[in-house]
Design brief:
With 265 residues, this protein is of the alpha+beta class. The protein has two domains: 140 residues, Regulatory protein AraC (Jelly Rolls, Sandwich), CATH 2.60.120; 112 residues, Orthogonal Bundle (Arc Repressor Mutant, subunit A). The chain is built from eleven helices and nine strands. One of its GO terms (molecular function) is DNA-binding transcription factor activity.
Amino acid sequence: MQGGVGTFHVIQCGYRFLHREPLRIDRSGLPFYVFVYFRAKAEAELDGKTVPLHSHWILFPPGSTQHYRSACLPYEDDWVHFTASHGEDFLRDLGIPLSRPVLLPDPSPIDRAILSMQNLQGQKAAWIDPLISSYLSCLFYDLSKLSPSIGVQTSAHRYYPELSQLRTELFSNPSAGTTVEALAARIGLSGSYLQALYKTEFGVSIGEDIIRGRLDRAKYLLANSETPVASVAEASGYRCEAHFMRQFKRLTGMTPGEYRRSTRI
């Protein structure tokens, strides 16, 4: 992306903000961005039309007019007020639309990012602001990937949820000892097509991540337990202890036993 990673300053945010009374927002000219995720039914006035909202998000730019209201009680939403330093290029590169509703049925990116930002609000450590900014950058990246109506669309974008889930499993459950063909079959793709999409999306091959997930698990077990090497190999997804030992030595420069001893010094 030409614009690079966005630099944001979060002024205030609210996670699962509950309104027991009717909410009506009518404002314009605010000098910062306003992001809203409508968890419950709402209505917005956009381009002279009343637009129903439910599980949509909208990013209002600085100086824009904002008219929306709750359409049910209780009403719940999430929101972030922030400024952007060089962040405009980042948002544009991601294809994030302004003052336009985008459907997001699964709120998990909102849950992860805004809850984390809210928990960090008010803390004074020097690293807090950069960390909060990174959460917001990740949120917009996820929204670009998960919202099919925005951004520059590729096949990888269309399969992003499945690819992301597969990648998580490669690192969280390497003992499954899965193959590229088995992973591809789960989402109805050929092995070669899955490998192409995966490399496009994450910049590494799926085979490299399979190996890295297995080695990371093996290193953890070697460093933190007395589990026999044969059992470490099996728990890390290897069906052949000899293959595990050859691959471990080739990629780490040490045998499993040498690695274990190095962690005990």
